[in-house]
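Supplementary notes for students who missed Thursday's class. We covered one full example, reproduced here. Read the sequence, then the structure, then the short commentary at the end.
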Amino acid sequence: MNMEGSMDKMDLNEYYDALEDMFGSKGWKFLTEDWTESVKELDSVVGCTTIEQLHERRGRLDVLQSLISLPESIGAIREMNEGDDDDTF
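Structure (token representation):
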């Protein structure tokens, strides 16, 4: 996710700051707790009787895990983009 193409540096910092505020909120904590419980419930092939159900379950797990790890992903992207700025002088 490279946001620099569509945002200037100031807008990009505001974007990252807003995401970090959201990740620190009580609501985000509740969501990630719910998603983590859902992962635990879905992380089994028990109950999958067709290959379609297995693929659907895998897709749901992928999405949930992506959401749960979003703060770390955004943090890494922000550091990478800030590192790119340091290389320009």
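Commentary. The chain has a mean pLDDT of 88. Residues 51-68 form the longest helix (18 residues). If anything here is unclear, bring it to office hours.
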